[in-house]
Amino acid sequence: MFSRTLNVSANICKPPLFNQVWLPPKNGRLIRNSFHNSKRGSRQALKPDPLENLHIETGPLHAKGLVKPLIFTVGVSAVSLLGCVIWEYENLRVHASSLLRRPGTWLTAQQKKSKSEPGPLKKWWNSLRDNEKVFYPILAANLLVFGAWRIRALQPFMVKYFCSNPSGGAVCLPMVLSTFSHYSPLHLAANMYVLYSFMPAAVSSMGKEQFTAMYLSAGVISSFASFLYKVMLNQPGLSLGASGAIMSVLSYVCMQYPDTKLSIIFLPMYTFAAGSAIKVIMGIDLAGVVLGWKFFDHAAHLGGAIFGIIWCQWGYSHVWGNRDKFLQYYHHFRKSDPGR
């Protein structure tokens, strides 16, 4: 049983601070209000809005428009799973080869000693834990996209490809790219803090390869859940943020370790069980879906959380646990490839 207390941000009990933002595409002013709500009354809010004149594609929503996103969701999830299974196989193979490798002669041993020392970057990378080796690339991708939002010339491109929009010209690719997209610094910081807080438990349980497969699948699945909700209610809008995927990590950890005591960073004296916490958070998102709250994409959060629970209860053993047949096929394919 995972026994240590996880110090999570104050946003855990009040998920709006790390929620995926939903931007109704009526005009650029609404985008500004959504992105900069935390800065109202500040000097920065008085600056000209760089997104004010951007054209946002919108149009009627139809159920048949969900077919292509559904196929894309299944395809991305399958590729993520198979790719991470291969990644795990190659890591195990390299590890086994290093254990079997022995210096056969004195000359071989001397040559090994004479090799140059690894550079500081490689030393730093080798010193990281498994969960950090997954977290920092995710953080780097999010920071890169965050920086791209600051370049005004790129903003039409960012709105088209890094905001999921069921009525946009680009529908499928943004379902993945929007998972790494944040415009608000607070949104980015809160999401990355929550992800970093729960990754050690998740990676410890699943391993870095399975965690990566689940995270990428959860990102596109939560985007599809958002599409489904918007089409059902005929309410087009833009969404961006990693919180759908992060909700899957959160729900997985809370279901895997339901008795773990969580605490709020600003109120560490108050603790609560992880199993109770995820029920409250999902209840808030369910209320947002039923009552039609539009400031955050509650459908994406709920979809990510449900996927995390399904993965904990069923996917861990029945999907990832049955990868042996594919590994046998890949092993024979690898042996038959003369280039390897």
TrEMBL record:
Keywords: Hydrolase, Membrane, Mitochondrion, Mitochondrion inner membrane, Transit peptide, Transmembrane, Transmembrane helix. It catalyses: Cleaves type-1 transmembrane domains using a catalytic dyad composed of serine and histidine that are contributed by different transmembrane domains. InterPro entries: Peptidase_S54_rhomboid_dom, Rhomboid-like_sf, Rhomboid_protease_S54. One of its GO terms (cellular component) is mitochondrial inner membrane. Residues 175-311 form the Peptidase S54 rhomboid domain. It is a multi-pass membrane protein. Pfam families: Rhomboid. It is found in: Mitochondrion inner membrane. Its main location: mitochondrion. Its EC number is 3.4.21.105. One of its GO terms (molecular function) is serine-type endopeptidase activity. The chain crosses the membrane at residues 134-151, 158-180, 213-232, 238-255, 267-293, 299-316. One of its GO terms (biological process) is signal peptide processing. Belongs to the peptidase S54 family. This is rhomboid protease. The lineage of its organism: Eukaryota, Metazoa, Ecdysozoa, Arthropoda, Hexapoda. The gene is LOC114249375.
